[in-house]
Protein 1
Amino acid sequence: MRFACFSLLLVSLTMQAQPSTDARLERKLRVALANFQGDAGVYVHHLRTGKTVAINADTLFPTASTIKIPIQCGLFDKIQKGELTYGQELVYHDSLHYDDGIVGSLRNGAKIPLSEVVMLMESVSDNTGSLWCQALAGGGEAINQWLETNGFHQTRVNSRTPGREAARSRYGWGQTTPRELAGLMTYIRQGRAVSPAASEEMYRNLGRQYWDNDGLSQIPPEIKTATKNGAVNQSRSEVVFVHAPHGEYVYCVMTKNQKDIRWERDNEGSALLRNVSALLWQYFEPKSTWKPAEGYEKWY
């Protein structure tokens, strides 16, 4: 009897693990992407049903600041190995300066806990802090090795990484695919990145997002999300894990070669991030009557 029950459990888990395409949702997303002036990719996975949509989901895109998710994983791998301590005190030096974000505005010799630098990397996307974390993680080579070992074969750090100069010229700081980036977010959510405890802390950091004017603006504020976005002139990207009432879902939208390079709210790539997010929320939560408050755009 116990063997029979165990066998049924294995069958059930196997069936849940098999993804299948949500054809109706795919049609809606293709319409949303149809007139985009540039290249766009989308990957969606509804974890309860196992349904997915993959549109250019295995195409390489620039990560921009979404590379800060792999950097965090590499850093926590060092912490797990005892080579760093999450709460250790760091000393900032002017030689670390990249731009005038929060970390880059510290005075020479200022002390700051590593945990705060990591939080700033993920929440406000602090660039100086992120490059500091990349170096502390052992650099791009160590982070890329962690990615490869954990099955993320397309996601790579390019900047300040020996041997990846050509990739950096093409993709910038890093490169990934919508499928892999969404997969990495799910990997962390499921407690599989580095360790369950490390995954939990990383996920908490990803749940403290300052930049909430794109995809997050189309999800009710009381809904828990974990996210990271990124933007450079010709690219807008966002990966979001949504704790929706009728089942968690994760999605990633990435663009490149955009014709619209304006840094305005109505940038075509930014608008696409919002449109996809709204479409997914309405699709997965059809009985929800929530919508962004009238005039919310003025806050951005």
Note: Residues 1-17 have pLDDT under 50 and may be disordered.
Protein 2
Amino acid sequence: MANTAQARKRARQAVKQNAHNSSQRSALRTAIKAVRKAIEAGDKAAAATIFQASVSKIDSIADKKIIHKNKAARHKSRLASALKALA
């Protein structure tokens, strides 16, 4: 349990930040699933459009250090290769 005023405030901030980061991670997973679903549907043009939006979202979350930059790169690489294999 936090004993000082500073520690109590940091605990409150940590709860808020955890909720925000959790929602960002959820949005990341949703974006990745959207690309996978579009690839499975077989429509390359739609998949490419969704892929571009997802890459933007992945980069944004990596820039905020919610996920590691290498993890972001790995997701983008795997999605890009899946999209390329669709041709």
Note: The mean pLDDT is 95.
Protein 3
Amino acid sequence: MGKLVYGDSGTEIEFDDRVLTHLQIVIGAKLRRRESFFFSWKDDPAVGDGRSSIWLDSSVPLYFRYNSNKVPALNREWITVMTASANSGAGLTFIEEPGDHSTPLPKSSA
């Protein structure tokens, strides 16, 4: 499991490395254009089974930490779907990879 570390808050959100790679591409594209947005996900039952959101802005430092040194193959359809979500009024909402129902839910800690 990789981690997305949000700003200086100490908040760490765990994602599978494959998921994190795709999120980095979508989030990076938005932030390069200086577009701020919410990023939301459903929490893993181990951390309360609720949902979480963070505000992403180019002024907030993000750190993507991968467990593996291998870069996974990219799923362009997944990137397209998540980019459309990120461009919506609701912001980027984590979705499972199309055709894959084994993606673990993210775990966050402050």
Note: Strands lie at 2-6, 11-15, 37-42, 51-56, 62-65, 92-93, 107-109.
Protein 4
Amino acid sequence: MAEVVAELDRRYPPAWAESWDRVGLVLGEPDAHVRRVLCVVDCVPETVEEALNVRADLIVAHHPLLLRGVSSVAPTTYKGRIIHRLIKNDVALFVAHTNADVADPGVSDALAARLGLRDLRPLRPADDSGDGRGIGRIGRLPAPVTLADLTLTAARALPSTAWGVRAAGPPDRIVETVAVCGGAGDSFLADATAAGVDAYLTADLRHHPVSEHLAGGGPALLDAAHWATERPWLDDLAAYLRATLDVETVVSDVDTDPWTVHQSLKEPRP
């Protein structure tokens, strides 16, 4: 375990995480032997059961299970039940969150790769970083496409969810440069505008910020499910662990997006 933790900390240094974040080893014995790792976006009951089914010794999750303080981990609580289930079955838990977001390569690099973006650079570079670190990525498509076609490409390239991919902007707008940010990215709308990109793909976009962004002349927007924008990183993470450590890896395709039904009776506006 200590060797795996050390390698993950080297790849995604805890010092790169935001001050409010909680990353690193959450539970598990440092001297335990790790044979198989399950890579997940969320540590939830469904992915815990998956870990038990594949006989994983360690779960590496993107989202923290214990992000905010708790006063009890009793098995009568939601998070307490997860923790008890893991401990009783000798399954450790490690989290790489905002430190994986800014890493190079990191979460947004994997998302950019799904769209085939080239010549990548950070959307918001990390302070005092000359190594390519930073939030989000900006790149160029292999060839110009319309916003409608890019939306279809994104829907096909990302894991399927009930949420799907929706876009804001003229469907026939030509897109050559694209910014992406895995996870909730509405706090970087101004960065996408300042970068002069044609479109920005992220998750969890809200009505009023989007309306004001478009009214201010910002780039077209694509809004995908939060889980779907971060799931591609798991493939890179698993490949890295296999290449650097003597462990087997399994990537979870359990859709942990909370939205499960999508129904529309209205045709997209021309």
Note: The chain has two domains: 2-97, 102-227.
